[in-house]
Amino acid sequence: xxxxxxxxxxxxxxxxxxxxxxxxxxxxxxxxxxxxxxxxxxxxxxxxxxxxxxxxxxxxxxxxxxxxxxxxxxxxxxxxxxxxxxxxxxxxxxxxxxxxxxxxxxxxxxxxxxxxxxxxxxxxxxxxxxxxxxxxxxxxxxxxxxxxxxxxxxxxxxxxxxxxxxxxxxxxxxxxxx
Length: 178
Known about the structure:
This protein has a single domain, classed as Heat Shock Protein 90 (2-Layer Sandwich), CATH 3.30.565. The protein contains 7 helices and 7 strands. Strand 6 and strand 7 form a beta hairpin. Helix 3 crosses helix 5 and helix 5 crosses helix 7.
C-alpha cells in the first residue's frame, strides 16, 4: 500500500512540475491579492493561535498558473502558522525589484536546525516529528518545484533573532508565460 501511495504522489508531482504548469489555466494574477486570499483561507488556524501579521505587499502582476502559485502561498503560510508560538507575529513582504519579484515570509518559530536546512525541500521529509500527523512531507518539495519551474529561487534561513525566513525570488517577466 505504501508503494502504491508513493507512486501516485510521484506521478502527481511529475505532472505538476511538467507540462501542466505551462498549459493549464495561465492568466495574469495579482500576487498581492493571492497572498491576501491565502491568509484569509487560513484564518481559523491563525486566529486560534492569536497570531498577528505585519504585512507590506506591493501590487504585483504576474502571469502564471493561479492554482499552483496559490499552493506556494498557502503552504508557506500554513507552515509559518504551524511553527509559530501562540500570540506570535508572521511578517510578509512582496515587492517588485528591478529584475525580479521578491516575497519574504518570516515567523517567530523555532527556526530550522542547520543539519535540516539542506533537506527541507526534499520529498517526504518532515522537520518536526510532532507535526507528522499534519502533513506528508510534500508541501515544500512541491513549492520548490513550482518556483523552479517559474525560473525562480527559494531559500530558507534562520533569522538572527529567532524564527525562520523564506525568500522567493521570481524573474521579472518579459513575454514568456510561466
